[in-house]
Amino acid sequence: MGGKGMRTGFTTGAAAAAAARACMSSIASQSRTGAVDVPLPRGGSLRIRVASCEFSHNRARCSVIKDGGDDPDVTHGAEISVECELAGAAGAVEVLGGEGVGTVTKPGLGLEIGAPAINPVPRRMIEGGVREAGARALARSGVRVTVSVANGAEIATKTDNPRLGIVGGISILGTSGIVVPFSTAAFAASVRQGIGVAAAMGEVEVALTTGGRSEEAARGLAGLRDHCYVQMGDFAGYSVRECARAGIRRVRIFGFVGKMAKLAAGAKQTHVKGSKVDTALLARIARECGAGDGAAGEIAAANTARHAGEIAQAHGIAGFFEGIARRAQAEMEGHGGGNVRVSVTLLGFDGGVLAEWPRE
Questions:
Q1: Is the same domain home to 74 and 141?
Q2: In terms of domains, do 37 and 103 share one?
Q3: CA 22, 172, 265 angle in degrees (round to 5)?
Q4: Can you name the residues that pair with 186 across neighbouring β-strands?
Q5: For the chain, give me the number of helices (H) and strands (E)?
Q6: How far apart are CA 309 and CA 303, in angstroms?
Q7: What does the DSSP 8-state code read for residue 348?
Q8: CA 355-359-360 angle, 5° bins
Q9: Tell me, what DSSP letter sits at residue 119?
Q10: CA–CA separation, 190 vs 230, rounded Å?
């Protein structure tokens, strides 16, 4: 997946889901679980090896070693552990953060303040695995699921978590379960290959997306043939230049507010390590849309681009998202050297459209 010779890995979310599934399998079978098949959010499954497994009749603790594939990040090699204990009302599944899993202290992350930094998709994967592997146990009891990460607090200091207000550990992340090495030369080559296929098929229009979720939304909006969708990952400027070089005449870019805010600020590469969200720019856009000093100040101090968007929506700042899309479109069209028409669609986290520029 993602290009010839490139080894994918799995997310911290998939690791936690595997460990949780192994716990319930071990309680059910009263034997050690050596590996599990984890269903992936977009179909298919992934076989993940279980590193350690201890169990009794009503409790189990299993761990999985996170594998980042050919693009390992700081969580590569981390031991993700899950403890499942039969407790509480029948059918109830409670997912908690243990040692090494961060706690949310700031808004703008799509999670409640005070909650463990376990994102919604991994949470659903964990709960789904527990319910599937532990169906018989859940008929008579609830399950308390605690996710922990060995040395998680130390690992987190090498991530953006402290800046984002996630304290005490790492985040349990991943919308697809799979880690595709977006920041490698191999991934750039796969982008070039995808654009080349579309051009070879005689296409003059492609949709560039930032990842799996934005591609899913784009497919429902763009109405193009299957080979016209190319996941550009963080390589936005490069992808538009490659489209121009290949003879593509129209490029439609789809993404969420975090990446789009970076493109609006002129970032050619949007990986979290290589660029930061310019909240001062977002505050200027808000002022241009008529925001007062108070709202603009809140946006300037926002924790994330998503948080800035939530502030803009709370203050009813009309045109804010369109302002981001307009700037991103101008920046991206510049990479095409005047040979490509670019449109930008800024997606909401529900998959709907927040703004599009130019307006269709």
A1: yes
A2: yes
A3: 150
A4: none
A5: 13, 18
A6: 11
A7: P
A8: 115
A9: -
A10: 9
* pLDDT tens sequence across 129-159: 999 999 999 999 999 999 999 999 999 999 8
Is 155 found in the same domain as 198?
no
Residue type, 282: L
Do the domain assignments include residue 263? yes
Residue 331 belongs to domain spanning: 185-357
For position 85, which CATH number holds? Answer: 3.30.2110.10
Which residue ranges in the chain fall short of pLDDT 50? 1-4
Q: Which residues pair with 94 in a beta bridge?
A: 144
Residue 4 belongs to a domain: no
Do the domain assignments include residue 1? no
H helices of 226-319, in order, are 236-246, 257-264, 279-288, 293-300, 305-314
Check if the beta carbon of residue 49 is closer than 8 Å to that of residue 157.
no
The 3-state DSSP class for residue 5 equals coil
Percent of the chain with pLDDT strictly greater than 90: 79
- Verify that 104 and 226 share a domain, yes or no: no
Supply the pTM of this predicted model: 0.79
